[in-house]
Design a protein that fits this description.
single chain, 25% strand, 545 residues, Alpha-D-Glucose-1,6-Bisphosphate, Chain A, domain 3, seven-stranded antiparallel beta sheet, alpha/beta, 3 domains, binds 1,6-di-O-phosphono-alpha-D-glucopyranose, TATA-Binding Protein, 27 strands, 17 helices
Length: 545
Amino acid sequence: MKTIQTTPFTDQRPGTSGLRKKTRVFMQPSYLENFVQAVFDTVREDTPGGFGAETLVVGGDGRYYNREATRTILLMAAANGFGRVLVGRGGILSTPAVSAVIRRRDALGGLVLSASHNPGGLEADFGIKYNVRNGGPAPEGVTGRVYEHTLKLTRYLTLEDADIDLEHEGTVRLGKTEVTIIDPLADYTSIMEELFDFELLRVLFQSGFRMRFDAMSAVTGPYARHILEERLGAQYGTVVNAEPLEDFGGHHPDPNLVYAAELVEHLSGVDAPDFGAACDGDGDRNLILGRDFFVTPGDSLAVIAEHAQSAIHGYRAGLAGVARSMPTSTAADRVAESLGVPCYETPTGWKFFGNLMDAGLCTICGEESFGTGSNHVREKDGLWAVLCWLSILASTRLGVAEVVRQHWQRFGRSYYQRHDYEGLEVAAATQMVDALRDRLPALAGIELAGSRVARADDFSYTDPVDGGVSAHQGLRILLEDGSRIVCRLSGTGTQGATLRLYVERYLKDGGEGAVEEILAPLAQAARELIELRERCGTDVPSIIT
Ligand code: G16
């Protein structure tokens, strides 16, 4: 065992979802080690019995530096006295699979190596986050303490280098620690089999139903091939870009209309498959498409909640509640109301759903950032969403567009867009948001986009389970006609600042309006209100989703 002297880095405060930086930043001597040691020091404070009887799970999305980081962590976990470490073969585990393994194997927690939907490679992004015993991302109380530890760290613990074979399943010893290389697919697939009626889905594929799943050269390739093609009998070749690559084939593994353009193109025209889907780098986000039809994440959440009890085996007992992040469209609220269950509004970040689920308050939850999930794990889960949709299509015998149109007919439609302005200068962007925050009290009553501001506030969340307060979670401008503008800075970017402007308008018009037209006045009002051009020199979004 070696004790290595180190000095703190001052930039290791976890963001929306762990620590994300450029890969080269992580590759600096001691950078990864310091953060991991800070996590272990924090977690040890909450583990009075020490780590000797505890299990740690380690896995990542296979991006550049995944393997090296995994080896570093294994040596450190052994030096820090963990009884057992479970690692996905090849260092691979999708983010929902890490959550599944933690829960099923009663682990203390896990380290997830991923920068999610951000590109991978030496010149791209890397990330790490700690998940706690419930399988979900560490709550703010824990990440805040991790940050404090990073600021005062003077040493980290590791072992003499050892040659660890990550490529074959089996168990080796590192000092007193048992390291087991596990099949990355097994625990996750078992959970999917418990939740979904695989026989029903096999019959769907036998009936000639065609789909295309784009794994974006990222971690879901092996999972989707195994479940969709090998277990459910989808035609071989249904899963494309199925080989996880260290640089995701040079692509941006973010499943939206821009970065999954090839899939969108494939789903257009009369010969297109019935159903299209994609997942992101680490497998927690999803994109759902019908033939010439895009399902917004807010609608996807609402439709899954609407059909869960009748169409999905694992939810036949009904839902305890629904939850969505504040900027996510309000479509799910209306479904929850019709089901007679509560709908919780949380800040952005999956970690906020964990407490609700642990307390049995919420079964299904989702976010505008292409994340949907349920209490089967404590992460959002891309393939789970795909299997939900397949189950809904199998049980309703309708197409994707028909399912959504029926939803709009019944509940009305939330026209919704998110406009991202990337690469802004950090100081200018921060001042811009601060300035709007200062003006919020004066906005009530003013005319905006053909309506009047009913209320404007800086969203603050009080966790209904532990009473914890998370303030400054996004500026909300609520109009009298039910429209909303939300504005916040991203907490997952690795370069400059990204402003997210979310616009929503609810209409009970059967849903046939043109989204751009309906939302253009709100989007323009949002840009003007925040003085985007004046303060940041641009008002052209980098991407609209
Ligand atoms: C993470 C979080 C999500 C959040 C998303 C975007 O997703 O887990 O809860 O919605 O980032 O966050 P932001 O708007 O702050 O960039 P992922 O898929 O990147 O882990």
